[in-house]
Amino acid sequence: MAAHPNPALTLRGVTLGYGERTVVGPVDLDIPAAQTTAIIGANGCGKSTLLRGLTRQLPLRSGTVEVLGRSVEGWPARDYARTVALLPQSPVAPEGMSVEQLVDRGRHPHRGWFGSSSRMDTEAVARALELTDLVELARRDITELSGGQRQRAWLALVLAQQTPVILLDEPTSYLDLSHQVELMDLVRSLPDPTVPTTAGTTASTAPSSTAGQGETERPRRATVVAVLHELNLAARTADHVIAMADGQVAAAGTPTEVLTPDLLLEVFGLDADVVRDPLLGHPVVLPRTAADRASAQERGLVTEPPSGDTLPSAPREDLR
Amino acid sequence: MSAVLETPRRAGGTTALETVRDLRARSTRRLSFVLVGLAVLLVLGMGVRVLLGGYTVAIPDFFAILAGERIEGAAGARFIVLQEKLPRAVAAALAGAALGASGALFRRTLRNPLASPDILGVTQGAAAAAVLVLAAGGVRGAGMAVAALIGGLAVTAAVLLVSMPGRSSRGSGGPAGGGLAGALGGQRFIVAGIAVAALGQAVVASAMLALSQHDLQAAAVWTAGSLNAVTWERIGYLAVTAAVLLPVGAALHAALSPSDLGSDLAHGLGSRPGRTGLGALGVGALLAAAATAATGPLAFVALLSTPIARGLTGGRPSLPAAALTGAVIVVLADFLAAEALGGVRLPTGVLTGAAGAPLMLWLLMRTRMGVR
């Protein structure tokens, strides 16, 4: 596996499990800083367990985890929660809580003993509501929101935590396609809150973009790790893809390197063609069945897509 | 994308910061208003309890008695105020506050609107232990109070042990209590608690049969939840317990706020729901048992204080608000039970029970599918 020059999370020989059962590992993994990493894999392959291990909800059976160069062992829980945030698969929405109150819960690790709040908290909540476009819904009860709005509210909670590393466990389940894309594009653009930007923090962001200032003026991005079910969504949004099978890392690399017909067969048992998105250039997975192939052959269609559209399969040795 | 990052969003001409500031100021204002309002109501209620009713005392006379002066022409006034009316009012306020705080801690830890020490057998366990030591060894006074504390804690521990998921199931991993966190979030705790509560009632009923005629009368009144027998000595124990445990409870209550959002997110927010929850249940059980030791089991006070306080604060869980609500409920209930029904002097617990039952049914009906 290609070691990243600047990993935000480094896992070495990590195993995780419940009771007597080992679910994940041993896993060696580098997760690149300031990029979006998607973890893909079939149901039950240990993706969510890996995230539980990274939030230390599940203790490591063996191995070491380093976050931003510091070993997680003996790292106090509250302090750790100021560095790594998690949006779990199915959080509980308490009764009678407004969006603002929900997002405010994300400030917990920044608070003192009796939970009193500060000016910093107000600013962080406002910023999170702004980023997720929820300002107008701030006073609404969360149970009144649509699925997409509610998912944005949960994301806002995690953003209010203001961590450089954000873990998301299937953030797009229950969302329709347009909301999936919208949410993941937002996730991809999230800034690292611990790196001060030149412009003001919240309301006073002056439009200072004059000619010549482009990509270089973009704030540094947060490190995002998302477990995703939707392969094409992962291909569209991720800079880095980790494919897991049976608790092991089957492949890691760019979407083009990982999402190949061979690997899809190995990891998901899925027969698929992979073509290139004509506009954005990322790989697109087209699932096939034996019946599809047979009927295409009968009708005289080629089952292999034209060579110009096929992505070159990455050499297998690079993936290991 | 870049628009999201750079343009300040506007809601009806206000920025996000202004909106959030406004919402927070409102919420804080409402909480302070509720806390001050409840405190005023409590002082007024205690004043009414002491000054009005069966033996009316004028305000200047009350302060004169407190200052140790003798009242001309009313030699008994001093005794009635200092040994009868004032201790009842103070005990009612303290027991109510302890029960209210205990209910808030159970409610938050177990994430269930029915989770409270009086539903889960803590008060019944305390009552059973107290009656048992009375029946077995004729232990009275401080010994009974200690037995009640031990009984309440023992019941909490027993229910917790029974409701721990087995080793084979998911989530029973960590040394910090994965199994514990599983037990705290589940329905098993509630079911086990209800069963133990019924057992506690049975123990009380059978132990009463073994009592002498003299003790039986006192025990019957006490197990119904009554302030008749309070003494300054008992109030002293309860006051010390409350003074120590209420601030601890408030800190634990605040530390548990992430667990409202489920165990996974709570861990992500740097909370340890298992460990903190265990502490909160221990403190809650001690508060409920201490109140029970002083006044007998006052039915439904712990269960009702939390939802009423939440209704007042607009959904914001607050332990001080729940404690004040409990205190107001018990003081008012004691006054009504003693004075409102003509010559009949009911035990306070009978009145809180009668008022609590319909409210509990209403809570059950409000707990619709999906809304937790």
Automatic annotation (TrEMBL), chain A:
TM ranges: none
SMART domains given for it?
Answer: AAA
Give the Pfam families listed for this entry. Answer: ABC_tran
Its GO CC terms? plasma membrane
Identify the keywords attached in UniProt to this record, alphabetized: ATP-binding, Cell membrane, Ion transport, Iron, Iron transport, Membrane, Nucleotide-binding, Transport
Question: What is an example of a GO molecular function annotated in this UniProt entry?
Answer: ATP binding
SUPFAM superfamilies from the xrefs? P-loop containing nucleoside triphosphate hydrolases
Q: What is this protein called?
A: Iron complex transport system ATP-binding protein
Query: Region (Disordered): which ranges?
Result: 192-219, 293-320
Q: Which Gene3D superfamilies match?
A: P-loop containing nucleotide triphosphate hydrolases (3.40.50.300)
Automatic annotation (TrEMBL), chain B:
Q: Which Pfam families match?
A: FecCD (PF01032)
Localization per record: Cell membrane
Under InterPro entries, the record lists:
ABC_BtuC-like, ABC_transptr_permease_BtuC
Transmembrane parts of this sequence: 31-52, 118-136, 142-162, 235-256, 276-306, 318-338, 344-364
Keywords recorded for this protein, A-Z: Cell membrane, Membrane, Transmembrane, Transmembrane helix, Transport
Q: Which GO terms describe its cellular component?
A: plasma membrane
Q: Which Gene Ontology molecular-function terms are recorded? A: transmembrane transporter activity
GO BP terms: namely: siderophore-iron import into cell
Membrane topology of the entry:
Multi-pass membrane protein
Q: What is its main location?
A: membrane
Q: What family does the Swiss-Prot or TrEMBL record give for this protein?
A: Belongs to the binding-protein-dependent transport system permease family. FecCD subfamily.
Name it.
Iron complex transport system permease protein
